[in-house]
Amino acid sequence: MVSFVVVLLVVIALIAAVINGENSSIKRSDFPDGFLFGVSTSSYQIEGGYLEDGKSLNNWDVFALYPGGIEKGENGFIADDHYHRYLKDIEIVQSLGVDAYRFSISWARVLPRGRFGEVNPNGIMFYNKILDELVLRGIKPFVTIFHHDIPQELEDRYGSWLSPLMQEDYVHFAETCFKNFGDRVKNWITINEPNLFAQMGYQNGIYPPARCSQPFGYCSAGNSDIEPLIVMHNLLLAHGKAVRLYRKDYQSEQDGLVGIVLNCIMYEPMTDDDLDKEAANRALAFDIGWVLDPLIFGNYPSEMRKYLGNQLPRFSVAESNYIRDGIDFIGVNHYATLYAKGCIHSSSSCSLTGNRSIKGFVDFSTEKDGVPIGESTGIDVMKVVPRGIGEVIEYLNKRYHNKPTFVTENGYSEPEVQDQVPIILHDDKRIEFHKAYMSSIAQAIRNGADVRGYFLWTLMDDFEWNHGYLLKFGLYYVDRKTLNRIPKLSARWYQDFLINNTLASNIQLAVS
Ligand code: NOJ
Question: Whose CA is nearest to atom 11 of ligand 1?
Answer without folding.
Answer: 464
